[in-house]
Write a structure and sequence with these properties.
Elements lengths: L1 E6 L2 H11 L6 E6 L9 E2 L7 H10 L4 E4 L2 H5 L2 H7 L3 E3 L7 H4 L1 H10 L7 E4 L2 H10 L4 E5 L8 E4 L2 H12 L11 E5 L4 E10 L3 E9 L2 E3 L3 E4 L4 E4 L6 H21 L5 E11 L2 E8 L7 H4 L7 H9 L14 E9 L11 E2 L11 E5 L2 E2 L6 E3 L3 E9 L2 H15 L4 E2 L8
Parallel strand pairs: 1-2, 1-4, 2-3, 4-5
Antiparallel strand pairs: 6-9, 7-8, 7-9, 10-11, 10-15, 11-14, 12-13, 14-17, 15-16, 17-22, 17-23, 18-21, 19-22, 20-21
Helix pairs in contact: 7-8
This protein binds adenosine monophosphate (AMP) and glycine.
Length: about 425
């Protein structure tokens, strides 16, 4: 099969790596890709959000299947446009991607189908927001309705904090249109875990679990980021909990979307909090996570192309998904200053000496080579170093040995990824 992967971060690097291992893959191209992906697949400089550009590329390159990595092209309808020109794509339609694209859509949907979640209200004016914040005594979570690159969620302790966050979204347009409507949610507590399911619209299968580390600094201190590291399987989950999450959250979501005329096809990423009243949905995403993919896919025993092909052929009930009985952790090396202001354009040490390192993968998240030999930083999150092993200690020892050896002076990383 000729496969196109849309995207260019660490997630897409891990997706492309898994697809490249399959004997079913004839040609693999990635757009825009990155210098790490370039080593084993052809990359085309077309932005992930350039819907028409991606469609043209898929047509010109006679692509049989497009794997859409990030949420924005999904929300913008890349899957729908590709279907119109007769090309299969893995990922939900724009309508189904609203589960991530609009937090009010997703909360209303869960309410309709009794899917466990925190209480919430939504509002588009500051007076209503203030009333709700006062009712919750400030102990709440303020969220922008739309996509805000993971920055539109403020977990609050006080009335002042929550009013400030709401004012910034509703009145100061901090997130533009994404914050025209906001949610004020009950703040729940518990351990968090991410569950990745794949669905063809009827059948769903759990593909893996992970725990993300969202705060910038050790011991969950500092601002929220896109994710500074991850571990798989999620230490807090087990077979019983996975089954409960499947029965109470995953399957009701797939069935509910179908009844509402928005068949859900692709990855359903459920961000879960394990509360004393059972697992509840913190958020849904309509694609794989970054950096969670960098720990889930290297553990996948089943051929990823087979999974994707059976999904688009609506034949998922014909397969079983197996993972290796091992552990993976990934540690993100980020530019100093991230998630605030950071500099791009700093030279990274050569990584080729780690190519032969066993059970280690270095995924590129924000790098460029400017078509020269040098590797240059080009984003907040720059690399993610994944180690596979029999247990957490083995993985931590390996991943940290490599990241210390890389010793990039303009970077920082959390030292407690996977620490239990
Ligand atoms: P999100 O971007 O929706 O994943 O939210 C970012 C983080 O905010 C989550 O990983 C949780 O730690 C926290 N969070 C979101 N919603 C809630 C909630 N209702 N109660 C407590 N924490 C929450
Ligand atoms: N790591 C969180 C996400 O991909 O949304």
């Amino acid at each position: 099969m000729n496969i196109l992967v849309v995207g260019g971060g660490g997630r897409e690097h891990a997706i492309a790596q898994a697809l490249s291992k399959s004997s079913l893959t004839k040609k693999l191209i990635v757009a825009p890709g990155n210098p790490g992906i370039k080593k084993f697949a052809e990359c085309y400089p077309i932005a992930a959000n350039d819907i028409e550009g991606q469609c043209k590329l898929a047509k010109n390159e006679k692509i049989d299947l497009v794997f859409i990595g990030p949420e924005i092209p999904l929300v913008l309808g890349l899957k729908d446009r590709l279907s119109e020109i007769g090309i299969n794509a893995f990922g939900p339609s724009a309508k189904a991607a609203q589960l991530e694209g609009s937090k009010t859509f997703s909360r209303n949907f869960c309410k309709k189908y009794n899917i466990p979640q925190p209480n919430f209200t939504y509002c588009d004016d500051i007076e209503t927001a203030k009333q709700q914040i006062e009712l919750l005594k400030g102990y709440c979570v303020v969220k922008a309705d739309g996509l805000a690159a993971g920055k539109g969620v403020v977990v609050c302790d006080t009335i002042e904090e929550a009013i400030t966050a709401s004012t910034q979204m509703l009145e100061d347009y901090k997130f533009g249109d994404a914050g025209k409507v906001i949610l004020i949610e009950e703040r729940i507590t518990g351990i968090e875990a991410s569950v990745f399911a794949v669905s063809d619209g009827d059948t769903a299968l759990i593909l893996g679990t992970a725990q993300d580390h969202k705060r910038a600094y050790d011991n969950d201190q500092g601002p929220n980021t896109g994710g500074m590291g991850a571990i798989s399987p999620a230490p807090a989950l087990n077979d019983r909990l996975n089954q409960e999450i499947f029965n109470t959250i995953i399957m009701p979501t797939i069935n509910g979307m179908k009844s509402d005329g928005m068949v859900y096809e692709g990855i359903l990423y459920a961000g879960i909090m394990l509360t004393t009243n059972g697992p509840k949905v913190i958020e849904f995403n309509c694609r794989f996570g970054d950096p969670e993919t960098q720990v889930v896919l290297p553990r996948l025993e089943t051929d990823l192309v087979e999974i994707v092909k059976n999904t688009v052929d609506k034949n998922l009930n014909g397969i079983k998904i197996n993972l290796f009985d091992n552990t993976a952790i990934t540690v993100v090396l980020a530019s100093q200053g991230y998630p605030g202001d950071f500099k791009k354009g700093s030279e990274l040490p050569s990584l080729s000496k780690y190519d032969q390192e066993e059970n280690i993968s270095i995924f590129h998240s924000g790098t460029t080579d400017n078509n020269e030999k040098k590797l240059i930083s080009n984003g907040g999150r720059v690399l993610s170093v994944t180690a596979i092993g029999q247990n957490v200690k083995e993985c931590r020892d390996k991943a940290y040995k490599i990241i210390e050896d890389i010793n990039w002076e303009n970077g920082f990383y959390r030292k407690d990824i996977g620490k239990l």
